[in-house]
């Protein structure tokens, strides 16, 4: 029997599974750091839990096969794919749009030899997502864990020279949450509650997933709804942190990052392409990636782009399950292989 395995390489998480699954499984995309492969020191400062971990995909590039090997072997182990089963396994890797095709081909060839699997192919995440939506021209904004990629696609072709990457993603929203909670701890009589919450990784991620929201219009001074974090006997008011933290996606300088926010990254990509195709690109802007799932993000991005590019049609589309959307797209392009005796 042949196994068909789809692996979506993310900057923070790997999504993997077989085509007959409804949803992929998820695994952190890090390895134990060694002296020659240390993690990003600045990111570790933002998130102390990253200490001793090396995230080989966090810059949106594709590392060499020997670096990827232990990550893929970790997936094989989780799925119980031993040596003889690997020989019958076909792997479909979903890779980042900026990676040069020649490098992709070489890594796939080297990785297949190292892993001993039957076949190993690759597809670009952003292109796959757009084509699955039955669009051939548009702009894909992939907000990952530690990087955002803005990819213009025209008539099914990646305009690779106009891809913009910026160091913002879900990780930075978590970092902003921690900083804001630490500030609240200093100012509040409930110091211990906020201090504990700021250092509880699972609690911070829970707050980000369930309570964070993007203010639709930054000019609106109305305070959005404020939430409380409830757990066991705790009932901690979150105040304004749930809508202040996501602002880092628009203004990375809020946590000391001198990089481009997502609005300016989209504008930069559009303004780099030929003027004759800008309207087609701006008319179909698709948000993918786990970092794009924050409530209100789509509406805010659309509003700000409409204000800054009034001469272009702006339509931004969000997805319900943006985290695993690229993986789901690959599933629909892979025909399950029937069992063979």
List key phrases describing it:
single chain, 341 residues, alpha/beta, 3 domains, 13 helices, 37% helix, globular, disordered C terminus
Structure explained in plain terms:
The chain is an alpha/beta fold. It has 3 domains: 3-126 and 324-333, ATPase, nucleotide binding domain (Nucleotidyltransferase, domain 5, 2-Layer Sandwich); 138-168 and 259-317, 2-Layer Sandwich (Nucleotidyltransferase, domain 5), CATH 3.30.420; 170-249. It contains 13 helices and 15 strands. The protein has helices at residues 41-46, 65-79, 83-86, 101-115, 125-132, 170-187, 191-199, 201-210, 241-244, 262-272, 278-282, 297-308, 325-333; strands at 3-9, 13-17, 25-28, 31-32, 53-54, 89-95, 119-124, 138-143, 148-154, 157-158, 164-166, 228-231, 234-237, 285-288, 316-317. The strands form 4 sheets. Strands 8, 9, 10, 11, 14 and 15 form a 6-stranded mixed sheet that branches. A hairpin with a 2-residue loop joins strand 12 (228-231) and strand 13 (234-237). The protein is globular. It starts with a strand and ends in an 8-residue tail after the last helix.
């Amino acid at each position: 029997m042949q196994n068909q395995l789809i692996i979506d390489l993310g900057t923070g998480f790997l999504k993997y599974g077989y085509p007959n699954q409804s949803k992929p499984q998820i695994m952190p995309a890090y390895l134990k750091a060694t002296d020659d492969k240390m993690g990003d020191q600045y990111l570790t400062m933002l998130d102390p839990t990253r200490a001793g971990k090396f995230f080989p995909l966090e810059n949106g590039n594709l590392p060499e096969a020997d670096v990827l090997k232990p990550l893929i072997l970790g997936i094989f182990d989780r799925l119980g794919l031993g040596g003889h089963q690997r020989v019958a396994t076909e792997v479909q890797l979903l890779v980042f749009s900026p990676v040069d095709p020649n490098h992709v081909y070489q890594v796939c060839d080297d990785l297949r030899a190292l892993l001993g699997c039957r076949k190993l192919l690759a597809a670009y995440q952003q292109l796959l997502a757009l084509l699955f939506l039955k669009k051939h021209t548009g702009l894909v904004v992939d907000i990952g864990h530690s990087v955002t990629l803005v990819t213009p696609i025209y008539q099914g072709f990646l305009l690779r020279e106009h891809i913009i990457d910026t160091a913002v993603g879900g990780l930075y929203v978590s970092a902003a949450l921690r900083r804001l909670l630490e500030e609240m701890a200093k100012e509040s009589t409930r110091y211990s509650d906020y201090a504990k919450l700021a250092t509880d990784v699972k609690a911070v991620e829970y707050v980000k997933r369930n309570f964070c929201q993007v203010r639709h219009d930054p000019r609106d001074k109305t305070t959005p709804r404020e939430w409380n974090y409830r757990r066991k006997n705790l009932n901690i008011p979150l105040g304004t942190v749930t809508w202040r933290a996501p602002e880092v996606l628009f203004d990375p300088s809020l946590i000391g990052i001198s990089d481009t926010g997502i609005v300016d990254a989209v504008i930069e990509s559009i303004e780099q392409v030929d003027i004759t195709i800008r309207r087609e690109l701006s008319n179909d802007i698709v948000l993918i990636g786990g970092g794009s799932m924050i409530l209100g993000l789509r509406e805010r991005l659309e509003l700000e782009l409409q204000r800054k590019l009034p001469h272009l049609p702006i339509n931004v589309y969000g997805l319900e399950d943006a985290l695993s959307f690229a993986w789901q797209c690959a599933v629909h392009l892979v025909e399950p292989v029937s069992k063979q005796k």
